Amino acid sequence: MEQYAIKGGNPLVGEVEIGGAKNAALAILAAAVMTEETVIIENVPDLRDTMAMLQAMKSIGIQVEQLNRHTVKINARNISDLVIEDDCIKKIRASYYFLGALLGKYKKAEVALPGGCNIGLRPIDQHIKGFRALGADVRIEHGLIITEAQQLKGGHIYLDVVTVGATINVMMAAVMAEGQTIIENAAKEPHVVDVANFLNSMGASVKGAGTDVIRIKGVQKLHGTEYAIIPDQIEAGTFMFAAAVTKGDVTVKNVIPKHLESISAKLMEIGCEVEESDDAVRVVAAKPLTHTHVKTLPYPGFPTDMQPQITVALGLSRGTSIVTESIFENRFKYVDELTRMGASIKVEGNTAIIDGVPKYTGASLTAPDLRAGAALVTAALAAEGISTIDDIKFIERGYEDFPQKLQGLGAQIEKVNTERELQKFRLKVG
Ligand code: UD1
């Protein structure tokens, strides 16, 4: 019965180190198969999703050596198979990155249809459209996406929606295509830029990542590299909002403040002080929180992956707030859980109308997905009394040492495995 037991009410105070970006790491690990030379990747977060990715790589004969908890050495020289249908990989969304990476290098890939969080329809039509524009054949058979090409040729792709996954996937496939590829209406997220930088460090020629037009000149071969992944914008943002809801004072360290601007701006709007330095951001929540409106948008807009966390904060903010989810259509499932903690939130379509309440009270909760799960943890930290959170496997997909990092800020949270451990926690926290 793995769950988190949380006693709320303590303001979070102190400093917390942010790890490498999950969504950059997942793509970069896949991209590492594109060279036969050795690649060393640093700042890889130790998460269920990254471990599933490495496991899938091992399953097709790629050498993977963990040099330390966050550094991994990869060599794909002896790759034995281009079919990835390992059980773990079916559960993660980013498995689709093997399509672009393997197609780019070996002109063929077969990958189990991606899983990931159930936050709405998650089509991959734009990935497929991009691969086809490069001359690949793509079909779906027996639960696998199969793509192959005699030869990949650079193409001109206009993405119909701004998609991080398709932008990265098509970019990877195009890196070793013949000639020039142009991706228009590309996603601009920091991890798109990170993957481009990684590919360039292997000898690729990718220009314009971080703008909405990416230009790729195909090269014949990629070489080995050593590369450090950028810090995780969403992990940092989650701790920043945890500071806000617990009326705390938290410094997130090892971050790129520029990547956090939309998050910092909303925190200031609702009454927090936010201080930026070179690689840290401090959030102080000394005043009562006030309402605001927010709409999730592709970067540099407010991230959809921070939508549950801001909703938790607005649920405790004076006045009426409106949160509009414009990226995924089913991302308010956690609102029922918050309601059971005393929140007053009405969801209509892709909009949540939130009437701030003075407090939440602890309850037995279930994490519906990764980010909503983390947001429920922050709600429980702010709540009066004890909460338990089930299905923490979702949270562990994206947060390394979450309870330990929160404990370091003064939170009363423990991972418990049995009813007895839960009772012990109850007795300890009083
Ligand atoms: C990635 C992130 C996820 C984040 C999301 C948006 C990973 C592993 N996951 O997910 O945490 O919430 O970006 O920042 O990096 N779409 C299509 N067709 C496609 C692809 C996407 O219509 O072929 C739509 C989606 O339904 C969604 C929007 O485009 O409405 C954005 O999706 P996308 O950016 O691709 O998200 P993911 O890559 O799945």
Total beta strands? 24
CATH topology of the largest domain: UDP-n-acetylglucosamine1-carboxyvinyl-transferase, Chain
Q: Report the β-strand fraction as a percent range.
A: 15-25%
CATH 2nd-level architecture of the largest domain: Alpha-beta prism
Query: What structural class should be given to the helix and strand makeup?
Result: alpha/beta
Biggest sheet, spatial arrangement of strands = 22-23-1-24
Explain the overall architecture.
With 430 residues, this protein is α/β, with parallel strands linked by helices. It has two domains: 3-18 and 231-429, Enolpyruvate transferase domain (UDP-n-acetylglucosamine1-carboxyvinyl-transferase, Chain), CATH 3.65.10; 22-228, Enolpyruvate transferase domain (UDP-n-acetylglucosamine1-carboxyvinyl-transferase, Chain, Alpha-beta prism), CATH 3.65.10.10. Helices cover 32% and strands 25% of the residues. The chain has helices at residues 22-31, 48-59, 87-90, 97-106, 125-133, 164-174, 190-201, 233-245, 261-269, 307-314, 335-340, 370-382, 393-396, 402-407, 419-429, and strands at 3-7, 13-17, 39-42, 63-68, 71-75, 83-84, 108-112, 137-141, 144-148, 156-158, 180-184, 205-207, 213-217, 225-228, 249-253, 273-276, 280-284, 293-295, 320-324, 344-348, 351-355, 364-366, 386-390, 412-416. The model has no long low-confidence stretch (mean pLDDT 95). The site of uridine-diphosphate-N-acetylglucosamine has 21 residues, from helix 1, helix 5 and helix 6.
